[in-house]
Amino acid sequence: MQRPGVGRACGKVIVVGEHFVLDGAEALAMPLPNFWTEVTWTPSRQPLSIDSDHSLSAAAETDALRMLRAAAIHAGISPLGEVVVRSTVPLHRGFGSSAALAVAALRAARQLRDKPEKPGLQADISDAVDDTHDRDDADLIGAARAVENVVHGSSSGLDPATAMGDGAVVFRDGKVLARVRPHPSLRDARWVLCDVGQAPSTGEAIGRANAARQRMGAEKTAALVARIGAATQDVIRGLREGELTFIARGMRDAASCLEAIDVVDARMRLAMTRSLDAGALAAKQSGAGLGGATLALAPNAEIAEIIARHHREANLPTWTLEIAP
Q1: How far apart are CA 21 and CA 103, in angstroms?
Q2: Which of 68, 189, 254, 324 is least surrounded by CB atoms within 10 angstroms?
């Protein structure tokens, strides 16, 4: 009997560039190892089924099965068997849950393709769980992008590239330009993520942003893309040099550009204002928008806790994460 294939991936937070990466702008996103998805794929002759620890609606389960079938096709295996999905990535919050599923499913399916069971051999789960260095990153990103497109329609590839879990990703035109390791001097700084409530589908947010672009026209859209490019360079410099001033400036410019394309709702604005009032250096949405998550930059753990407390007092879940673990 062939042993199960196991794949793992993580969530992400976009620091700068969401939406505008589809216009050719550079974007930067960071993996969130605390948020992970693990897929265990047991082959059989039975129709594909899914067992998830998330309470999935009928529509969400259908989408997940469509993605799994696409992953099987891309990996060259039969879309059959039982798939168990365990995940700590919150759904519909801009943390890349679908990208994490796509990458984890592809890793599991490729393991089934590449490592057939030997008689009496038990599955070595750790080999799959710890594998964040694939033989061909570009190929995996391309396949995961296609798998995401099954449900989203227009994945840039940024989320899957970050879901691989190998450092902050600088991304443009479907390719990873660089992976950035935060400077050690940023160890005191923190990200504070705030869950403002469920967002609509990524496709709906992209449609709203596209409508805003059409209203603005090509010239104004191009100007926003240029501003995002400069903001991304600020964040890259800040991460590499350990300068919070540059990271904050890039985040503030990105927040302004996202307001211009109509994807920031009242819940997000309130959460960002609350973060800034509590001492954040910058705050913006993260992800497609219209709900989901906001991202705040705190200079240290003490300020991060004040920000988080303000959100908790408003009954909003928060997560405080290190920038340079």
Answers
A1: 20
A2: 324
* Residue 274 phi, psi dihedral angles, 5° rounding: -60, -40
**How far is residue 209's CA from residue 21's CA, in Å, rounded to a whole number?**
12
- In angstroms, the CA 305 to CA 318 distance is 10
d(CA 88, CA 189): 24
pLDDT digits (tens, 9 = 90+) for 153-199: 777 788 899 999 888 999 998 889 999 999 999 999 999 999 999 88
Q: Which of 67, 32, 248 is nearest to 159 (CA)?
A: 32
Question: For tokens 């599955």, what's the residue?
Answer: 123
Judging by DSSP bridges, how do beta strands 49-52 and 80-87 pair with one another? parallel
Q: For residue 293, what is the DSSP state?
A: E
| Tokens encoding 169 | 């990703």
Residue with token string 């991060």: 304
- Tokens for 142? 């391309």
The number of domains in the chain is 2
The CATH number of the domain where 145 resides is what?
Answer: 3.30.230.10
Global pTM reads 0.82
CA distances from 246 to 230, 243, 299 (A): 11, 6, 13
Whether 156 and 254 map to the same domain: the answer is no
Measuring CA to CA, which residue among 20, 160, 47, 96 is closest to residue 293?
96
Domain boundary among 180, 201, 226: 180
Q: Which of 180, 198, 223 is the last residue of a domain?
A: 180
Q: What are phi and psi of 110, to 5 degrees?
A: -70, -30
